[in-house]
Amino acid sequence: MIPAGALRQRAKGRRLRLANKFLTGFLATATLAAAAGFGSDTLVLTSTNGSANDVVVFKLQTSTTPSLSLVNMLPTGGSGGAGGATAGAVQFAGNFGAVANYGSNNVSQLIRIGNSIVVGPSVKLAPNCMHPVSVALMAGHLFVVGSNCAESHPWPLGITAGSAVSLPDSSAAQIAVGETWAAVTLISGSVLQLPLNAAGSLTGASNIVTLPSDANNTPLGEAFWGDLLAFNPAHSPDSLALVNSSRMVFPILGPQPPYPSNAPCWLAKGPGNVWYSGNSPGQAVSVFFSDGQGGVFYKSVPVPGTPTDLAVSPDRKWLAVIYTAADNSGARVAVFSIDFRGDLTPVATSSPVGASAFHGVAFSQ
Predict the structure, then answer these.
(1) Residue 123: closest CA among 92, 144, 103, 148
(2) Are 79 and 102 in contact (CB under 8 A)?
(3) In the chain, what are the domain boundaries?
(4) Cα–Cα–Cα angle for 179, 121, 356, nearest 5°?
(5) Checking phi first, is residue 235 left (phi over 0); if not, alpha (psi -120 to 50) or beta?
(6) Assigned CATH class of 36-364
(7) Is 343 exposed, middle or buried (0-12, 13-18, 19+ CB in 10 A)?
(8) Chain centroid offset of residue 167 CA
(9) What pLDDT is attached to residue 98?
(10) pLDDT classification of 157: cutoffs 50, 70, 90
């Protein structure tokens, strides 16, 4: 029989070897990415959510005839398969991005080298955590929510840090991160506040945000403005709501008539006090303005299909919307320009790539 102390030493040795292996790979790719620089192209990324969960990379061309052309389709080595209503499966910040592999219980790292995207190492979920549906990148950390846990990892290193948070059910739609707290929307009808520690990781604690009856039906998309959360209770008449760090909720009336005619579902923070929401049944992007304690619905801009996620570029000049085309031609990406008032103008739309639906969308600039 092997003594318990020896078993602990072996386990510790395995953990150190794994950490060193990941660190060696990270340093190599980080050095390569830093040496190559960012490049000047504006790229739009999404994923196919299929058995190979390819990352689809498009290039936005606006200088002459606007276009959104396919650059590459990159196998992540993982598998998709996330069903239902989720958002944030693809994120990008600086030189590094992440894509959730629902069927593989991991997250693939993406690396920008010049004007190219390559797939880096995979990040395993915390023990007993499964089926990632949404990721967020914030202040040197990767945040992941899946069917039963929310967790955090130093980024782009990728090892587990902080404490995983158990979820009350398996209906997580998205994770987003502010300055002092993260939030998870649960389709079943609630929002969880997840405090951050001084290092920026999850503390392991969670608080339920009490939602009013006019803004608690089917929470889906969310985004932060500093430490102020906004989310879409998609099937409520007040289909946008603000939540501050004290868990005070400020509902905002959405487009009328409400669900099932309109349902702002997926959310992105625009420039200034503007919010953009993908309105799936309305086949539109619904635009809102807000301050810290309320706001107003402005208008809806048509989309030629059913939007399922959206993202604003880092320079705040572009909005990308993934949607399923109304003519049944498959998944597409539409890009809109954003003017100084926050108004949207259609610029370019991708051609089909053989995917019936996309999952997650992000910019790399």
Answers:
(1) 144
(2) yes
(3) 36-364
(4) 85
(5) alpha
(6) mainly beta
(7) middle
(8) 18
(9) 98
(10) confident
